[in-house]
Amino acid sequence: MQHFSSCILLLLLILTTHHFIPSLSEKCNPHDKKALLQIRKELGNPTKLSSWNPKTDCCNGKWLGVVCDTDTQTYRVTNLGLDELDLVKPLPIPPSIPNLSFLSFLTLTRTPNLVGPIPPSIANLTKLMYLYITQTGVSGEIPNILSQIKTLLTIDLTNNKLTGPLPASLSSLPKLIGISFDGNQLTGTIPESYSSFPKSFTVLTLSKNRLSGKIPASLTKLNLAFVDLEQNALEGDASVFFGSKKSTQKILLGKNSFAFDIGKVGLSKDLNALDLKNNKIYGTLPVGLTKLKFLRKFNVSNNNLCGEIPQGGKLQRFDESSYAHNKCLCGSPLEGCKA
């Protein structure tokens, strides 16, 4: 009888231990798991998130787009990538995303049916470093409240349906490296405050919007690696982005109404792309262009340039379409200058 009781006790012990194994071995923080499952529900349970199985550990590496912190072994969700979701109808950014309070990396991309504004509650993500919302139907203004997330390094909001002005407050972000707001319907001017971006700030891309007005002269303080303002309605002096002491690699200003003397600008030795087409830029091309060793993209067509194209370096590698339709530009690869 005692042997039978011992067997029953052993069996119960095995059963209860086995019953608790999943909960003991699960590393996913229950608060994060609850938030993730709520996010899936708010997105209409898309089939792409079928790997988010409530019976499994969200930190097992199999939950699509979910990465947990394994370095410090806190196993909080730090990365969330929601890309190319098959939403059955237009839905907003899930309101439960800000409940993932340890997020440092958030991407919402290539989902046209993701609509509505960027929620102000996103400011609750106080550890967020990288924010990517691209190729969606997200609309409304870029919220000023983003400037409260002091950890932000990169904000990429390209190819959405965002409207309104550029938030002036973004320059207060102490660690910001770059902003990319290309392909929206943003209006107004580039804020004067953008001259106060931190030294770490090197990327400013605002192409294919409806921005207008003049570039603040104070932006000359910036040392940008990459600036792209193409296809806006900007005007005036954009020479502020040039400078021989800067480490600029790309300057793309085409299809605006900029007007300044190109002959007076200093050139970064690192420059590999210079596109100034379809503006009102005047003067003669600087001889310094021939010394640019890395120049791979070059177009100054449809401006008011004059004088001889400097000979040498990589300038003659570009065909005549890169120089065409100027006031009186001449020399190879265009027709020779008249004596």
TrEMBL record:
One GO BP annotation of this record: defense response
Is Membrane a UniProt keyword of this protein? yes
Task: Give the residue spans that cross the bilayer.
Answer: none
Compartments where located = Membrane; Secreted, Cell wall
Q: Mind listing the UniProt keywords for this protein, alphabetically?
A: Cell wall, Disulfide bond, Leucine-rich repeat, Membrane, Plant defense, Repeat, Secreted, Signal
Q: Which family does it belong to?
A: Belongs to the polygalacturonase-inhibiting protein family.
Q: What is this protein called?
A: Leucine-rich repeat-containing N-terminal plant-type domain-containing protein
Q: What is the lineage of its organism?
A: Eukaryota, Viridiplantae, Streptophyta, Embryophyta, Tracheophyta
